[in-house]
């Protein structure tokens, strides 16, 4: 069952403090968080979070398209590393 | 690097009686397999591939002959199809094949962090897995230099943010984005 709209999105409060501190520093930082349940808000766009998956902190670079999703969606707890084959990536 | 075989597909069980086979494709775009002039199997034989359905393909050998029947297709089961690294198309500026990145040694100054073990993308940017579990975003800030010819990358590890004060306060709800 979906969360009621009148409640608004759920976010752990301390994430705001961390995000503000990261923005203020302006450095190349990863904000380590354990809060996989928190919703990604527009305030977090452009920041990089290290989201714990029970084993490691996976870097999550927040973009506009990720707003409304949960942090945990981008840090899978079970990973399958397929073949590299001809897959390619652009350096962000 | 130029002649490194790149695994693109694995041949599965036969399909029907006309020599078609099921193919498990590892390429980013399955349609791209038709564009290669030569796919090499484990025994070094040349093949070309044409898709005949979803996951079902027709293989032609170097002479242009298709697999004759189901028995010929059965003989191809579990053969891996690869291309030479040089056969892959050129990448755009700032774009890298994962297979090129894997194995590069990561240096920060003179300190080595190990080799790139894997390249991940879970939907939030590309991540390099280096050495014993170091996960690094593949960005200009964190990986300023990629030297494919030299077999090394230069990394700049991001700082870990520390926020003073109590962070275990109440959970906020009702925040409107």
From TrEMBL, chain A:
User: InterPro entries under this entry?
Assistant: Ribosomal_uS19, Ribosomal_uS19_bac-type, Ribosomal_uS19_CS, Ribosomal_uS19_SF
Molecular function in Gene Ontology: rRNA binding; structural constituent of ribosome
Look up the domain of life of the source.
Bacteria
GO CC: one term?
small ribosomal subunit
Gene3D superfamilies (alphabetical): 30s Ribosomal Protein S19, Chain A
User: What Pfam families would the database entry show?
Assistant: Ribosomal_S19
Residues of the signal peptide? none
Q: Name one GO biological process term.
A: translation
Which keywords, in A-to-Z order, does the entry hold?
A: Ribonucleoprotein, Ribosomal protein, RNA-binding, rRNA-binding
User: What is the recorded function of this protein according to its Swiss-Prot or TrEMBL entry?
Assistant: Protein S19 forms a complex with S13 that binds strongly to the 16S ribosomal RNA.
Q: Which PANTHER family match?
A: RIBOSOMAL PROTEIN S19P FAMILY MEMBER, SMALL RIBOSOMAL SUBUNIT PROTEIN US19M
Hey, which family's this protein in?
Belongs to the universal ribosomal protein uS19 family.
Q: Which NCBIfam families match?
A: rpsS_bact (TIGR01050)
What HAMAP family does UniProt report for this protein, alphabetically?
Ribosomal_uS19
Q: What's the protein name?
A: Small ribosomal subunit protein uS19
Organism of this sequence: Ameyamaea chiangmaiensis
Automatic annotation (TrEMBL), chain B:
User: For the Ribosome maturation factor RimM PRC barrel domain, which residue ranges apply?
Assistant: 99-161
Known InterPro entries for this protein? PRC_barrel-like_sf, PRC_RimM, RimM, RimM_N, RimM_N_sf, Transl_B-barrel_sf
Every RimM N-terminal domain range:
8-86
| An example Gene Ontology biological process | ribosomal small subunit biogenesis
Specify whether NAD is a keyword of the entry.
no
Q: What family does this belong to?
A: Belongs to the RimM family.
* Oligomer and partners: Binds ribosomal protein uS19.
Fill in the domain comment. The PRC barrel domain binds ribosomal protein uS19.
Write out the function statement from the record: An accessory protein needed during the final step in the assembly of 30S ribosomal subunit, possibly for assembly of the head region. Essential for efficient processing of 16S rRNA. May be needed both before and after RbfA during the maturation of 16S rRNA. It has affinity for free ribosomal 30S subunits but not for 70S ribosomes.
Q: What is this protein called?
A: Ribosome maturation factor RimM
Q: Which species is this record about? A: Ameyamaea chiangmaiensis
């Amino acid at each position: 069952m979906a969360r009621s709209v009148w409640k608004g999105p759920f976010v752990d409060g301390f994430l705001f403090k961390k995000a503000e501190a990261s923005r203020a520093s302006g450095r190349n930082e990863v904000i380590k968080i354990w809060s996989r349940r928190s919703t990604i808000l527009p305030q977090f766009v452009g920041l990089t979070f290290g989201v714990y998956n029970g084993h490691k902190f996976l870097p999550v670079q927040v973009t506009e398209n990720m707003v409304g999703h949960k942090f945990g969606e981008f840090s899978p707890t079970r990973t399958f590393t397929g073949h590299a084959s001809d897959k390619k990536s652009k350096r962000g | 690097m130029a002649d490194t075989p790149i695994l693109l597909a694995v041949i599965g069980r036969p399909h029907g009686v006309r020599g078609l086979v099921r193919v498990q494709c590892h390429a980013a775009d399955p349609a791209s397999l038709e564009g290669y002039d030569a796919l090499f199997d484990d025994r070094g034989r040349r093949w070309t591939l044409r898709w005949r359905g979803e996951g079902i393909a027709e293989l032609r050998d170097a002479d242009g002959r298709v697999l004759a029947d189901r028995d010929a297709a059965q003989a191809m089961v579990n053969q891996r199809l690869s291309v030479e690294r040089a056969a892959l198309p050129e990448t755009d500026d700032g774009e890298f094949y994962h297979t090129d990145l894997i194995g590069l040694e990561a240096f920060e100054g003179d300190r080595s962090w190990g080799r790139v073990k894997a390249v991940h993308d879970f939907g939030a940017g590309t991540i390099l897995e280096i050495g014993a579990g170091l996960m690094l975003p593949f960005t200009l800030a964190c990986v300023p230099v990629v030297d494919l010819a030299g077999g090394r990358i230069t990394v700049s590890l991001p700082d870990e943010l520390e926020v003073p004060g109590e962070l275990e306060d109440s959970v906020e709800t009702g925040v409107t984005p």
